[in-house]
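Lab meeting prep.
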Amino acid sequence: MVTFKEAADIFYYPFFKLLRTAHEIHIQNFDEQSVQISDILSIKTGGCSEDCAYCAQSLRNGTKMPKQPMLDLKNVTNAAQNAKERGASRFCMSMSGRRPSSDEEFEKICEMVKAVKNLGLETCVTLGFVTEQQAEKLKKSGLDYYNHNVDTSPEFYPNIISTRTMDDRIKTIEIIQRAGINVCCGGIVGMGETNEDRIKMLTLLANLSTPPKCIPINKLVKIPGTRVDDSHPIDDFDFVRTIALARILMPKSYVKIAAGRNTFSESTQALCIFAGANALFSGEKLLTVDNVKNGADKNLLDKLNIKIEKTNHA
């Protein structure tokens, strides 16, 4: 078990010592010259009853996002094929809402998982709460990863969400892991939390009985009408420190730069990769927010002499 003090001491290392430490741990566990690429699609958008302060899809925020019914299997399969052609090895399907609304809806999702798996891609979904039986069905359908972020520290969490607790999230993670599915779990930074909150979030993840296989670190994308659209943005160096701490505390996990990457310079992204980030979201859209432009990742990775990972690690 790692303590908060131990993690904080690492976070506040002199910057270059922190980067060096994280990089040395990274190259002991991964190929430093490769990154894993994922793509993500919103298969059902808007109309969510949860009150996540950062989310455009919540009915409780003032964003007035149009509600989109669940996409059909053909559209999802076509999107996955396009993602594969762009270099993605994992395709993530995200559904708005607290949980699947019906058995029929859940069965459609299982069919999507099977179809994407048949394309030779790793599969990932985020569906909110699921039962033990649903988790087992997803596993049998070919699901490799389940995304269920804790979002922030336990202490700051009530400022962001009131409709589900941190304990609810941990219980869902435990259900997924018992079914033999890899967990993708991280958080969002820049919502008004402190560095101490970021350290506590990563300490929580590191102290899970099994740390997440993939840790997405999202920089808040401010959306007008949400309750955190006026929060102070995270400093780039603090973001890099967060990446480095994730790598040091969870050396065998993939650390992913997720939403907000389009706001970082190439130099900041390079620092993140040196500090241990080895996974990226591709595509011009991440659910409801913009991502990097087509061709931007190839330009960056070429400059860094980094290749896209093709090996299946599920």
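Slide two material, second protein:
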Amino acid sequence: MLLVNTDYISGKELETLGIVKGNIVQTKNFGRDFMAGIKTLVGGEVKEYTDMLNQARQIAVKRMVDEAMEMGADAIVNVRYASSALMQGAAEMIAYGTAVKYKY
């Protein structure tokens, strides 16, 4: 499945199938929080949270792609990512775009 952040695919005529999305709500855990708390004392990247968000993004993308495949899509254009804090210690990651099929 081709994913692009443009609204076109060079050299292809596209048929729009609809919006697809995938999301996950990820929570922190005690071990990550403890290590992150220590990291704030010395500064630098909080790798535990970077890893957590990368994993959440991968899950959201997979769910988006699965939804597009169910629609018979060849690609997803205009792919975007967003995240938001839902409550103390929990964040949502969402991936969304437009499922398209190639016109032959």
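Talking points for slide two:
The first helix runs from residue 30 to 42.
Helices lie at 30-42, 47-70.
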